[in-house]
What we know:
Layout: H1 10-13, H2 15-19, H3 23-32, H4 37-63, H5 68-92, H6 96-125, E1 129-130, H7 133-160, H8 165-189, H9 209-240, H10 245-257, H11 259-270, H12 274-303, H13 314-330, E2 335-336, H14 338-356
Antiparallel strand pairs: 1-2
Helix pairs in contact: 3-4, 4-5, 4-9, 4-11, 5-6, 5-9, 5-12, 6-10, 6-11, 6-12, 6-13, 6-14, 7-8, 7-12, 7-13, 8-12, 11-12, 13-14
Amino acid sequence: MTHGPSRRSPSTAWIFPWAFLAFCPLSLLLYALHAPAIPVFIITFLGIIPATSLIARSTNELSLRTSTTVGSLLNATFGNAIELFIAIFAIRAGLVEMVQASISGSIILNILLLIGASMLFGGMKHREQLFNKESAGVGSTMLLIAVAGLSLPTIYQIVTGKSAGVMSQAVSITLAATYIFGLFFTLFTHRHLFVAKREAGDAGPRWTTGRASLVLLTSVAVAAIESEVLVNTVGPLTGTINLSEAFIGMVIIAVITNVPEHIAAISFGLRDNITLSLEIGMNSAIQIALFVAPILVFVSPLVSGQPFTLAFSSFELVGLVLAVAIINFIGSDGICNWLEGVQLVAVYAIIATAFFFI
């Protein structure tokens, strides 16, 4: 999914991420000096902002050379790269509960907060917005499959009291295969269903392919380094402030790792291109559930003695079911307004509040 470059001049449009680059070396310095966990976590969080912003900019430049569908996959894939880095480092550190919460939190956030914010801000500017019901329907069905795949190992472990490790591996293979077939459906056999409009007034790419690729790879590498520092501060942080691993993963980590998608999706909503906002949110959630989570199931034994499984907590499972149910209902008529955006954001706020009190 593509998004046109900002209408502001390059000097003002991207001064924000560049200005925050100083936090990257500062976070590494504080971490090396064993500074208190809270300032290290905050500085590292600010250091990830320029990396995620530059990921969004470089994927935007590369997306302008592709179809809108391929562009949306670029946005989702490289946005979720940060999610994958943090998850692998956290599993290695033994923070499996936080990883499970961040996986479910990212899915819920992309479905409710990202799409809801896009509908809200877009609806404040445009009375009603139309979107592609066919592509939304395919995405909704994939999300239902994702919920089935993530819920059954959870129910199995709750009912039997046995580990869902082997079952998670079997389900992960099925989920990953479904994701690959879904890509083939989207990109080849039925790509006509996913055609979204480009804006006629948007300029073409401002960066060369080489420059965009270099910035993308560099920003992903910086994000990986900052992700490891961030994860290493979580343990001391939970001992300093009264926040659980589940809340940190479900809300804080999920927000940090989904900044690029939010930037792109909200900008589309403001430009009356809500179809692209929906596809970014759904593609990101689908990719996390059907691809990132299965990867973690098989990678976890290689990096940690504590395996990652698809057996989530009851609260996480309820949150996933609620999120998928409401987006299926709202996305069924092909039209949206700002109130539906408020409703999606409200459900996310309720779920996040519940996790705060767990």
